[in-house]
Amino acid sequence: MPAAPVDTFPWVDVTGAAVQAQSNTGYIARNDAAQVVVTLPANPTVGDVLRIKGAGLGGWKLAQNAGQTVNTGPIGGMAGASWTAHGPEQYWRAVASSADGSKLLAAASGGRLYTSTDGGLNWTARDADRPWQSVASSAAGDKLVAVASLGSLYTSSDGGESWTPCRGNAPCDAERWWSSVASSADGSKLVAALATGEIYTSTDSGSSWTQRSVDNQAWTSVTSSADGTRLAALGYPGRIFTSTDSGATWAPCSDQPLCDSFNLLNWTAVASSADGSKLVATEWNGRIYTSSDAGVHWTLCTTRPACSSDRLWMAVASSADGSRLVAAASDGRIYTSSDGGVSWTARDSNRDWSSVASSADGGRLVATIGQGIGPIYISTATTTPGTAGSISGTATDAIELQYVGDGLFTVLSHEGNPTAE
């Protein structure tokens, strides 16, 4: 009978408070009184591996050197810590993402639609120049919908390679002032809103549409749950309306004083969790609001720095579980939250942000700017770059990393629930 294979990977017991790691070595944190800090190798070679196991009650912390960062997607990390510019430079108006973040759709104001199948690294121009206003994607990224601010509805069933304009009776009988569109996960149920006061829904991927009876407002944003049954719509200025039957009936928010009929706020964007229970909404020259009961009650964000003052909020997006949020201001920065909007972290630089989108797990984010020509910005889940970034674990947590070059490590495997900063 052959002998069992022997693990020749060298392991080092660490009972002190800190150790400088060497490549292709494992470290066991055995300190019961204090957290063991393991600093990444300073000069690794591509392919080098590092392993850390917890054994002592103090746990462990993986520290970075200047210029280093770790891809934390495999351990459920949220994107947003760092952003890179990609794609053509346009006056961008809207962006949408597939559930895994690999397929993206971006709309240029007065330009064309662009699609990406590699997470935003490369982009292909689609359709024609139009005053695009809003876009939405199915979870798979194959069924897409786009609306023009003075134009028609357009749908695609092949990931954006070809587009079909809405035809027939209303709302396809004339050019209209479309403001926002949203899609169910399978792309069959759509909701589209007009800046002139009407909302339409479709149950056949946009082949036909039904006008819904809702309060006549200048609608600015709509969102949908994954199954298309729970919808939310924002007025400008106006109120928040929600639907639990795919748009057949709508109810105004009654939470006081936010939803008082005389307290009409300048709502700009709304996003929903997959089940529709968690909502996040933004106000122009105002604040961020969240709801954990499908829009019945709302909580005003008051934490710093995102909510320390009124901002010109333009866009917001949510992960599938509603815990990871991203919001963008046209007069400032991007902000992310990993606790459902309780606290927020400022990201990137001051830019005129126009739209944001998120993958289902929040591990991939995409953002665009609207005033002035600029690129598309992509963020993947990583630790904060440099010495400010880290990953921590307890006595029951373990992690394995590999160096992939340019200061970047990626998580190969893990046990337990390591947390990243």
UniProtKB/TrEMBL annotation:
InterPro entries: WD40/YVTN_repeat-like_dom_sf, Xyloglucanase_GH74
Gene3D superfamilies, per the entry: YVTN repeat-like/Quinoprotein amine dehydrogenase
Top-level division of the source organism's lineage: Bacteria
PANTHER family with a match to the protein in the record: EXO-ALPHA-SIALIDASE (PTHR43739:SF5), XYLOGLUCANASE (EUROFUNG) (PTHR43739)
This protein's name: Exo-alpha-sialidase
